[in-house]
Design brief:
single chain, mainly alpha, 12 helices, 74% helix, globular
């Protein structure tokens, strides 16, 4: 007959491991409390207020009038222009970021390397200062036009145009496209690529069949991280577009500045719907990404 103490040893060990695991969960929960409080106070609560003011009048009565403001010709034109410019900026960022990420991956750059630091460095500067710097560069008497005049090309009207806004979006949001793609590329196992080469695949076939599908999660993350802020921005369009070009972000900002919080919240809800729709469409092509799908 077996000793009772020997039989109970595995049970005691399992109980000890379960207690240790439970202690780790409690410790992790307590450590995450500051972030949860921050998220509740600065993310969830503002969203609740936006939803409340967006579907109510100043007297607190329920209404959809604030949402229907998007049907106004000016607001509708501002939304369509914002969608167009943000889509163009996202495509340009993708076309610039993917080759750059491939180059960084090929030369095996580390996260603290000099080139990666150059890409990240602009993100450490104030967003407003970066945009104002481009205003000084693109204006008619700015650095760019002075250089073009010296070359005999003449000054160009770049500032206060859609092209200037796209340039500002690409400059400010390009790092958000490069880094996710680069982080995915460096995790691709080189043995998979070498196996494809050994089986007779050329460089183009290897890229299309192996590298591109495996880097799709980074592409999806980059598109989301660029398109959403580009669609909602109003600082870039205000500084580089002037009063001639109005995006939906400018309309919402003007409503809140005038004290029309209900109207501004209603337009914000409509914009939020478009953002969710775009994220849902993009996430459909990202079946293997961990935790990025919103549906």
């Amino acid at each position: 007959m077996k000793d009772v103490t020997q039989v109970n040893k595995p049970a005691k060990r399992l109980n000890g491991e379960a207690g240790h695991h439970s202690l780790k969960i409690k410790k992790t929960t307590w450590l995450s409390m500051p972030y949860l409080l921050w998220m509740a106070g600065f993310i969830i609560l503002p969203l609740i207020l936006i939803v409340y003011y967006g579907i109510t009048t100043e007297d607190g009565a329920a209404t959809i009038k604030n949402l229907l403001l998007i049907s106004d010709p000016i607001n509708r034109r501002a939304l369509l222009l914002a969608l167009e410019l943000s889509l163009i900026s996202t495509i340009i960022c993708l076309l610039l970021a993917y080759p750059l990420a491939l180059i960084l991956n090929k030369i095996k750059m580390k996260s603290n390397s000099f080139i990666v630091m150059i890409i990240i460095l602009p993100m450490w500067m104030n967003f407003l200062l970066r945009t104002i710097a481009w205003q000084n560069i693109l204006e008619r008497t700015g650095v760019l036009n002075k250089l073009l005049s010296f070359l005999g090309i003449g000054p160009l009207n770049i500032i206060n145009t859609p092209g200037a806004i796209i340039l500002g979006m690409v400059y400010n949001f390009l790092p958000f496209m490069v880094l996710p793609i680069y982080n995915v590329l460096i995790k691709i196992d080189r043995d998979i690529i070498n196996a494809a080469r050994d089986l007779g695949a050329n460089s183009m076939q290897t890229f299309i069949k192996i590298i591109l599908p495996l880097s799709l999660p980074g592409i999806i993350s980059g598109i989301t991280m660029v398109f959403v802020p580009a669609l909602t921005t109003f600082v870039i369009s205000t500084i580089l577009g002037g009063s001639k070009i109005v995006l939906i972000g400018n309309v919402i900002e003007q409503q809140f500045r005038l004290g029309n919080r209900n109207e501004g919240s209603g337009l914000s809800l409509v914009l939020m719907i478009f953002i969710l729709i775009s994220m849902a469409i993009v996430s459909k092509y990202d079946k293997e990404s961990e935790g990025s799908s919103i549906w």
